[in-house]
Write a structure and sequence with these properties.
homodimer, 405 residues, alpha/beta, Carbamate kinase, 8-stranded mixed beta sheet, 26% strand
C-alpha cells in the first residue's frame, strides 16, 4: 500500500519534531508500506520570507515571490531526508518539479494540472522513502510555482491520487469535529465525514483542511485521514458518502457539523436605484479590490429603489469602506452600512438534501430562544445564518444540542 | 559589454543592502551595459542551515545538504529581482540550473563542467537584468549541487567566461593588498595583479578570492575586478601578466604580495624507521581523515631512521592527534610532535621566476633580525616560511618594507 503523509509547518517547526516524524515514518515503512511524505516549511518560515519581500515593496513580483516562498519547503525536505537517513532508512528528497507536479495559472496561486509520478514510483520501487516539497510545482516554462497558502494539503492529495494510494494529513488538531470544541465542549469528533460535507465545512470557515484538497480527494476518490497523534489512529477519515454508508459502525446523521465564522462583516446597501447596472457596479468594485464576497441576498424591492446585503471577511474592511464612500457620494439617498458585529453560523450535512424538516427545526429553535438573524443562505448540504456576534456561540450550541453533534 | 557582478553574503545581508545593490546595478544598466549578477546567501544564512542539519546528525547526507544549502542563494535572487523590478528595471532570477550551470563531482564539492548560456543571453537580449544564484549548479541526474564554500566567485567567473564578459566581484575588502593592512599599516592596494600571483596569494591564505575562481579566470582570460565601493572603481584588477606589462602606468615589482596564514600547525615526525611505506602510511591516514596537508619537508636522514615535517590547518588538530597516537603506539622510538604555535609567511611575485636574488635577500633579513624558521618551501612564484607564531607579523613587516609593498 502506498501511503502519502503530509505534515504542516507546526509539525516540522524544529529539528526535534522532524526527527520524531522520521521515527514514525520509519515504523510505517517497517510495517510494509510504501511511504511518500509531503512537508510544509518549518514553523513560520514562509511568513518570515514574505516579510523580507515586503521590506522592499508592498507589491513584490509574483514570479519572484513563488521562488522565494518555495525555498522553505525545500529546506524541510532536506532536513527530513537527513533525519531518515540518520535512522538508517533510505530516503530521497524531491522538489515539486522533481516529483513531477505540473502546474498552470498565475504565480502564487497555481493549480496542479498533472502529476508525472514515474520518478516517485521508481524511488519507491528501490525501497526509498520519498520526501516531497509541498505547496509547489513547476510550470510550462520551468519556473517553480506555488499553490497558494495551505497548498501542501493539495500536493498530498494529488500525489495520493496519482499513486493510487491513501493520504494521511497530520496537523495540530486531532480530527474533524462536528463543532469547534472551543465553542461547545461536548463536541464530538467524527470518525468519518463525506467529501461534500467537509468541503462545506472548509469553505464555511472550519479551517482544518484546504477546500481544494478535499475537492480533489472527492473527485479522484482518495481517502484522506486527518489527525494529530503519530501513534494511535484516532482522527477522522474523509471519504465518499457511499463508503460511510457501507460502514455499519456509524449511523449517518442528518447534520454532520456546525461551524462558526467570526471573520465576517455584513454590508447593507439601502435605497439604491433598482437597476442591475448599479448592483453590478458594486460587485465589480469589490472584485477589483480583491474583496471576497460571500453571501448575497436581496432584502426588499420596490419599483424604484431596492436594498440588498452581502457578507465578506473582516480583513476586507478598509477596501469596503472606500467603496462605501464612492457609492454614497454617487447616489443621493443610498446608505452603505457596514456591520462588523456579526457572525456566520452554518449547519452542514448530507442529510439536508432529503430532509426537509431541518430548516423548520432550525427556525423553531431560533424562535423559542428569541434569536433574530440578519441573513440566510442555503446550499444543497448547508444552511448559513448571519446573527449578532454576541449570539454566535449560543446559536451554535443550541444547534449542536438539537442535532446531537 | 556584458558585465557579471558578484555580491557576497555580507553585501546582501539585509533588504536595505539588497536595495542599494539594485540601485547600483540600475546605473550600470543605464550606462548601456548588459548586466548579469551572481549573489550569495544573505549574511550567515548558509551557516544557519548547516547548524540545523547538525542538530540532527554530525554527518548529514551530502545530496540533501546540497539541496538545503542551495536555498539561501535562491532567496537572495528573488529578493534582488523584486528590488530591481520595484525600481522599474526588468529583471529575472535564475537558479544555477536555469542559468545552465552544469556540474560534476561529489555533492557539496561539485565543479562546473559546462555552462549553457543560451537562456541568459535570451533574457539579456530582451533587456533584462539577469540575477543568478551563486554557489550552485545542476548535475547529470537533475539534482541541485553546490560548489563548496566561496563557490559564488567561481559561478561569476565561469558565467563571465561563457558570456565573454568582464567580471566584477564586490566584497567586504576594497581590493587586493600586497600585505594584509591589519598586519602592516603602510600596505599598498594593488591596481593590478596577475592570475598566477593572485592564485598563490589565495592558496596561501589571503582569503579575498576563491582560488578556483582565479584559476578559471586565468584559463579563459576573464578580467576580474575586486572591490568594495558601489561607486568609484578603486579596487584591484586581476588579469594576465601580459596585460599588466602593457599597462605603462604600473611598474612590475619583483614581489607583489606577502601573506600571513595563522591557521597553520606544524608536525615533526622524528625517528621514524626510514621506509617509504611508513611515510606513505601517515599521509594516507591524513588523507582519509580529510586533513589538508600543505608543506612537506624532509629534515634529516640517517641510514635507519629519518625525520620529516609537514603543516596543515589548525582545524585538523583533533584528527591529527588521533593519527599521532597510532603512530607512536606502532613505532617504539618515533615522536609525533604537533606544534600549533606557528605561522606561515609567504612572499609572492612573478619576479621570483627570474630574480634569483630574492631568496638570498630574504635570508639576509632573517639573519640580521635574528629570526629563525622551522620550514621553508618554494614554488615558481612564491616562497613560504614557517616561523614562530609570535614572529609572524614582524617577519611580514620586514618583508613588506624590504620589497616596498
Amino acid at each position: 500500500m502506498i501511503i502519502v503523509h503530509k505534515y504542516g509547518g507546526t509539525s516540522v517547526a524544529t529539528t526535534e519534531k522532524i526527527m520524531n516524524i522520521a521515527k514514525y515514518l520509519g515504523r510505517v515503512k517497517d510495517a510494509g508500506n510504501d511511504v511518500v511524505v509531503v512537508v510544509s516549511a518549518m514553523g513560520k518560515a514562509t511568513d518570515a520570507l514574505i516579510k523580507l519581500a515586503h521590506e522592499i515593496t508592498e507589491n513584490p513580483d509574483s514570479r519572484e515571490m513563488d521562488r522565494l516562498m518555495s525555498t522553505g519547503e525545500q529546506q524541510t525536505i532536506s532536513l527530513l531526508s537527513i533525519a531518515l537517513k540518520t535512522l538508517g532508512y533510505d530516503a530521497i528528497s524531491l522538489t515539486g518539479a522533481q516529483a513531477g507536479i505540473k502546474t498552470i495559472g498565475h504565480y502564487m496561486k497555481n493549480r496542479i494540472v498533472d502529476i508525472d509520478a514515474e520518478s516517485i514510483k521508481k524511488h519507491l520501487d528501490s525501497g526509498k522513502i520519498v520526501v516531497v516539497a509541498g505547496f509547489q510545482g513547476v510550470n510550462e516554462v520551468g519556473d517553480v510555482t506555488t499553490l497558494g497558502r495551505g497548498g501542501s494539503d493539495t500536493s498530498a492529495v494529488a500525489l495520493a491520487s496519482a499513486l493510487k494510494g491513501k493520504c494521511e494529513i497530520y496537523t495540530d488538531v486531532d480530527g474533524i469535529y462536528s463543532i469547534d470544541p472551543r465553542v461547545y465542549s461536548d463536541a464530538k469528533k467524527l470518525p468519518f465525514i463525506s467529501y461534500d460535507e467537509m468541503m462545506e465545512l472548509a469553505y464555511l470557515g472550519a479551517g482544518v483542511m484546504e477546500p481544494r484538497a478535499v475537492e480533489l480527494g472527492g473527485k479522484y476518490g482518495v481517502e484522506i485521514y486527518v489527525g494529530k497523534s503519530l501513534g494511535e489512529k484516532n482522527g477522522t477519515i474523509i471519504t465518499s458518502i457511499e463508503k460511510i454508508k457501507e460502514n455499519k459502525k456509524m449511523e449517518q446523521k442528518v447534520i454532520t457539523g456546525v461551524s462558526i465564522n467570526e471573520n465576517t462583516i455584513m454590508v447593507n446597501v439601502e435605497e439604491i436605484p433598482t437597476n442591475a447596472q448599479n448592483v453590478y457596479e458594486i460587485f465589480e468594485k469589490a472584485e477589483k479590490s480583491g474583496i471576497n464576497v460571500d453571501m448575497i441576498s436581496q432584502n426588499d424591492v420596490s419599483s424604484h429603489h431596492g436594498s440588498f446585503a452581502f457578507t465578506c471577511p473582516k480583513t476586507d474592511m478598509a477596501a469596503l469602506e472606500k467603496i462605501g464612500e464612492k457609492i454614497e457620494a454617487k447616489y443621493e439617498n443610498t446608505s452603505f452600512i457596514i456591520n462588523p458585529y456579526v457572525t456566520k453560523v452554518s449547519i452542514v450535512g448530507i442529510g439536508l438534501i432529503s430532509n426537509v424538516g431541518v430548516a423548520s427545526k432550525m427556525f423553531k429553535i431560533l424562535a423559542e430562544n428569541d434569536i433574530s438573524f440578519h441573513q440566510i443562505s442555503t446550499s444543497e448540504i448547508s444552511i448559513s445564518l448571519i446573527v449578532d456576534e454576541v449570539m454566535g456561540k449560543r446559536v451554535a450550541e443550541l444547534f449542536a444540542k438539537e442535532f446531537d453533534l
